[in-house]
Design brief:
alpha/beta, 4-stranded antiparallel sheet, binds pyridoxal-5'-phosphate, 7-stranded mixed sheet, 15 helices
């Protein structure tokens, strides 16, 4: 502990001691990053982390002493940068992920450089986020004056929509009494809904039993009539239905529930209508695809990702809430240390902090604002259409391979398929396709992912990828038969 008085020569700071040296390194970082992105097509879709790298990172002791920017940057280049899950590659088709964009990366850097605090101060970043939310609302057909908030991801955006639904339709002051204030609150979603719905009711204090998982029809859309019957039975049993959840683009197969029918059901039952449109909502950007998600504009709340089918770097998503009063009522709380002074840096209040659980928030809006303006929303619509056309054409191509079955007709941008050799049981097919998936990934051919549809193991080729060229899909499709047949032969021999 030093007792010397403060002094301009010795005051510590984290700014560079040598700005020119730092500038040179920073320029190198930027060049390397752009070069790496530019050469992605020359690399395998995914490369596993080598054991030595794993150890080097996992076992490093806490660094109390400086190693220097240059040294840690070299380590990053060698040990971190090459070993991602592959999502930036044009041959990544797993789960539902975006690739990031160079402009989005630069915007994130600028936002980080500004270190703007998006609780909602009297500043320009606040205006940018408000504009971005209004643009997204317009794209989704929500009325002017709708509320919304940028969130870190689709899960968070969905939780937020459900939190507002819960408070708005509980029938009592949920903020004051919690779940103890009245009958059990009930929420309805299909068995194909994303796992956020269960986590949501758990986290929002309702409990798992508050989520009714409603069966789907053969096309994997929620059975609206069964949902209606469940709502009525729950009411009769003294429970309180609050929210109907529809999905625009399910994670498994890209299928969209009948959103018009769900909106009608919610209206008739006076329930909140929430739509999870994590990626599917973005189909609305294309006039040709918008009919696929018709009815989305009738939602009371809508969650969508901008880091999936708008391809921006993680993280950014948006939740829209039709009723701005219900939105504020769910979260607004202003202690004296955050009071709006009417003038100065906090004038106008902390608008965003009043609309969600977070106080300090990053300037995620900048990458959306810059990308929409620089590239134009039509460019995104065009690539979304391209992805849908690619998924359809890919399914047609692999359907010609003997033994390959398309498990679900391509509804949007996801082809769901499996290899079914003659004479194999369902269980053998499940095992074969699991192995096939892993070989496709491990050989670096491509990165699709697996799931279950209608109870059987399937491989998903999900295209939310602005780097995918038709040649990538051809290479992937044409690489499948060899891998599939070698597993088949090994299984027959065993
Ligand atoms: C990805 C996804 C989510 C979750 O979004 P995150 O951004 O990963 O949190 C929710 N619902 C659907 C349909 C999704 O595809």
């Amino acid at each position: 502990m030093s007792h010397t008085p403060p002094n301009a020569q010795t005051d510590a700071t984290l700014d560079p001691l040598d700005w020119e040296a730092f500038r040179a390194l920073a320029h190198r970082m930027l060049d390397d990053s752009l070069n790496h992105t530019r050469s992605l097509s020359e690399r395998p879709a995914w490369t596993p982390v080598p054991a030595a790298v794993r150890r080097a990172i996992a076992e490093e002791p806490l660094p109390m002493e400086a190693q220097g920017e240059r040294a840690v940057y070299e380590q990053f280049l060698e040990q971190v940068l090459p070993y991602t899950n592959g999502a930036r590659s044009g041959r990544f088709f797993g789960w539902v992920q975006g690739n990031g964009t160079p402009l989005g990366m630069m915007a994130d850097m600028l936002a980080s450089g500004m270190n703007a605090h998006l609780a909602g101060f009297n500043d320009a970043p606040r205006l940018v986020e408000l504009r971005v939310i209004a643009w997204v609302a317009e794209l989704m057909g929500f009325p002017q004056g709708s509320s919304g908030l940028l969130m870190s991801g689709g899960s968070m955006a969905n939780y937020l929509g459900l939190a507002v639904a819960r408070n708005a339709r509980a029938g009592y002051d949920f903020r004051k009494f919690g779940a103890l204030g009245g009958p059990r609150l009930m929420v309805y979603a299909s068995t194909e809904a994303h796992s956020w719905a269960q986590k949501g009711v758990e986290m929002l204090g309702l409990g798992q039993d508050s989520l009714r998982k409603v069966p789907v029809d053969v096309e994997l859309r929620v059975s609206v009539e069964t949902m209606r019957a469940m709502i009525e039975a729950d009411r009769a049993a003294g429970l309180r239905p609050v929210c109907v959840i529809g999905t625009a683009g399910t994670v498994n197969s890209g299928v969209t529930d009948d959103l018009e029918a769900l909106a009608d059901l919610a209206a008739a039952e006076r329930l909140w209508f929430h739509v999870d449109g994590a990626f599917g909502a973005l189909a609305r950007l294309s006039p040709a695809l918008a009919p696929l998600v018709k009815g989305i504009e009738r939602a009371d709340s809508l969650a969508l990702d901008l880091h999936k089918w708008i391809y921006l770097p993680y993280e950014v998503a948006c939740v829209l809430i039709r009723d701005p009063v219900a939105h504020r009522d769910a979260f607004a709380l202003t202690p004296s240390y955050l009071r709006d002074e009417g003038r100065g840096a906090i004038a106008g209040g902390l608008v965003f902090a009043d609309l969600g659980p977070e106080l300090t928030r990053s300037f995620k809006a900048l990458k959306v604002w810059m990308s929409f303006k620089a590239q134009g929303v039509d460019a995104f619509a065009e690539i979304i259409e391209q992805n849908v056309a690619q998924a359809r054409a890919f399914a047609e191509r692999i359907a010609t391979v003997p033994g390959i079955e398309i498990s679900v007709p391509v509804a949007m941008n996801i082809a769901v398929w499996r290899y079914v050799p003659v004479g194999f049981t369902d269980e053998q097919c499940d095992a074969l396709n699991q192995e096939l998936l892993l070989r496709i990934q491990e050989t670096g051919l491509a990165v699709p992912s697996g799931s279950h549809v209608h109870g059987r193991y399937v491989i998903r080729t999900c295209i939310t990828n602005h780097r995918t060229r038709w040649a990538d899909l051809v290479a992937f499709a044409d690489g499948i038969p060899l891998l599939a047949r070698s597993i088949e032969q090994a299984m027959r021999a065993a």
